[in-house]
Design goal:
Strand content: 15-25%
Strand order of the largest sheet: 1-3-4-5-8-7-6
CATH superfamily of one domain: Spindle assembly abnormal protein 6, N-terminal domain
Order of helices and strands: HEEEEEHHEEEHHHHHH
Number of helices: 9
Shape: elongated
Number of strands: 8
Distance between the termini: 152 Å
CATH class of one domain: Mainly Beta
Length: 262
């Protein structure tokens, strides 16, 4: 089940392979100096097709079954499941170090590894000839064209989406700036129309308090005591009732002769 799920999710994979012999790289000027292109795709949930070609005289092919994937996993010792090993296989073929090693005759091996020090993946290939080779190269060319067209369509959609997002962002920015200007205008109007009475009130109150303090300090201690203890002040504070004052005034108006006659 793991292999089935992994093969269904296997995306078409293209890459460049450097051709070499078992004894070393091909010499310059050799026909094998031409670059090779490899292509891997899932034929169905149980098979992966791997094709390598120089679009000239060398085209090789191999169909990997789920059992072949299991055997490769056992050989490399990578991954605890088939899906994990499939991820490692994809990462290895996607690296920059993929080689096509010719061993003589009509066979070759596609060798790759994820990074330095990691186990190598080796896929045995069989050389094709005649119509089979032409069919594979033709199908690969059409697949490359469809893939390029699809990628260009995705890129165009992303570019259009980016343009729309930039327009939306510009509109939101303009709206935000407009609202900020409105807010600043309202704040300025409130500051201008606010009455400034508090400062005058504080100044008047302050002047009154200062005058009272100055008048109080202008009077010496003795003057304040005299003013507090003076008779007029005490009389004003201890005034007699009205009926008593009338009787006293009447007694003062009597003559001495009137007193003797009585």
């Amino acid at each position: 089940m793991a292999a089935k799920k992994g093969f269904e999710e296997f995306e078409p994979l293209f890459g460049k392979a450097v051709a070499e012999l078992d004894t070393g790289p091909f010499a310059a000027g050799s026909v094998f100096h031409r670059p090779f292109l490899f292509y891997a795709r899932a034929l169905d949930p149980y098979r992966i097709d791997v094709v390598v070609t120089d679009f000239c005289s060398h085209t090789l092919d191999r169909v990997l079954t789920s059992q072949d994937i299991e055997d490769m996993r056992d050989e490399t010792g990578v991954g605890s499941s088939c899906s994990e090993f499939l991820d490692y296989l994809i990462a290895s073929l996607s690296s920059d170090d993929v080689r096509l090693v010719f061993g003589g005759g009509s066979t070759a091996k596609l060798v790759a590894h994820k990074s330095k020090g990691m186990p190598h993946i080796s896929i045995s290939l069989q050389k094709l000839a005649g119509l089979s080779s032409n069919d594979v190269m033709g199908n690969l060319s059409l697949t490359l064209y469809r893939n390029l067209k699809e990628k260009r369509g995705e890129l165009a959609k992303e570019c259009w989406r980016r343009i729309e997002l930039e327009k939306s962002l510009a509109a939101e920015k303009e709206k935000s700036e407009y609202l900020q200007r409105q807010l600043d205008s309202l704040s300025f109007k409130r500051k201008v129309s606010r009455p400034k009475l508090s400062d005058n009130a504080v100044s008047v109150t302050g002047v009154s308090d200062i005058d009272a303090t100055v008048n109080s300090e202008a009077q010496g201690p003795s003057e304040r005591l005299i003013e507090r203890d003076s008779p007029s002040t005490k009389m004003s504070q201890r005034a007699a009732p009205a009926h008593r004052r009338a009787k006293v005034r009447g007694a003062l108006l009597l003559d001495c002769d009137d007193i003797d006659d009585s």
